[in-house]
Write a structure and sequence with these properties.
Layout lengths: L1 H8 L5 H6 L1 H12 L5 E5 L5 E6 L8 H11 L7 E4 L2 E8 L2 E7 L5 H19 L4 H6 L1 H11 E2 L2 E2 L4 H4 L16 H9 L28 E14 L5 E15 L14 E3 L10 E3 L13 H4 L1
Parallel strand pairs: 10-11
Antiparallel strand pairs: 1-2, 1-5, 3-4, 4-5, 6-7, 8-9
Helix pairs in contact: 5-7
């Protein structure tokens, strides 16, 4: 974190350091310039600005109005990524909210979209419910999160676990927003075999060691997504399964957790597949996972 900010700040003030390696800072500035954002906005469904961060002042102040006007002119099926008068507009829409970033530089659009998507997840983790009311009630917390994720327009860290050590504001509780009609319709339906937990709308920052009556809880979700393409004869052309294990922890402190997987699990890239084995094409882990123990203790 500190090294990123030192590189982003530019050359060192020491004459000796500048003379010894002048190209290092030049390369660093060029690398970080690719991910530079000029403005960040969070807009309400009606277009009103909830969060406004202007890092450089090189983009017009009325960029949200230009974005909304251009979005109305474009067809609904077209992605909201476009350029107007030399300004790049990139946006992610979540629960009716617009997470908008602008820049004058030719940054990779997929990089900014991924950053904005991760910002929506972090806000959801910290305030519990992602809507206009929750953002307005927790605008101080949201600004603190944005300041930690972006420093002068440069991305720093967008991990919920890493931000816990730097975020100190407590979230204001907000209801999930379910109406009386929705609750009545839900009560008329048959009871499902599995019930969604309340942890979905529970802010992680509300966990505290000195509060009574709270439980040490951890929620594990196993999600499978099946994708298949059939031809006109009903035959399968392509078929794939993407699975993920998502965990949300409310445990006191930072204990080490062990998650045991199937003993017959095999990774195709490792070349250990065989008859009866559950073979995976590829796996990706969160940065907090100890990869050195995965092969020996899974």
């Amino acid at each position: 974190r500190c090294s990123l900010r030192r590189l982003a700040a530019g050359p060192s003030s020491s004459p000796g350091a500048l003379a010894s390696s002048p190209s290092v800072h030049t390369v660093a500035r060029g690398r970080f310039r690719r991910g530079m954002i000029s403005q960040l906005f969070i807009l309400a469904p009606n277009g009103h600005t909830i969060v406004n961060k202007d890092y450089r002042g090189d983009v017009p102040k009325d960029s949200p109005e230009i974005f909304l006007r251009k979005l109305v002119e474009k067809s609904e099926g077209e992605a909201p990524i476009f350029n107007v008068d030399g300004v790049n507009y990139m946006c992610v829409r979540k629960n009716g909210l617009f997470f908008l970033a602008t820049t004058l530089h030719n940054v990779p659009p997929a990089f900014v979209i991924e950053l904005l998507t991760q910002l929506t997840k972090v806000c959801k983790d910290y305030i519990g419910v992602l809507n206009e009311e929750s953002l307005r009630k927790n605008f101080t917390l949201i600004y603190e999160l944005v300041d930690e994720i972006l420093d002068f327009g440069y991305p720093q860290s967008a991990s919920t676990a890493e931000l816990k050590a730097f975020v100190f504001n407590e979230p204001a509780p907000v209801s999930s927003g379910a109406t009386a009609t929705a609750r009545m319709m839900t009560s008329l339906k048959a009871a499902p075999k599995t019930m969604s937990s309340k942890a979905v709308h529970k802010p992680i920052a509300l966990r505290s060691d000195d509060r009574r009556g709270e439980k040490n809880e951890i929620f594990v979700d196993v999600i499978d997504r099946i994708s298949a393409v059939f031809n006109s004869s009903g035959q399968v052309r392509t078929f794939s399964i993407d699975g993920s294990i998502q965990m949300k922890s409310y445990l006191s402190g930072s204990p080490e957790l062990h998650l045991a997987l199937n003993d017959e699990l095999a990774i195709a890239s490792a070349g250990k597949g065989g008859y009866g084995m559950v073979e995976l094409d590829n796996v990706n882990f969160h940065e907090c996972v100890q990869l050195d123990k995965f092969e020996s203790e899974r």
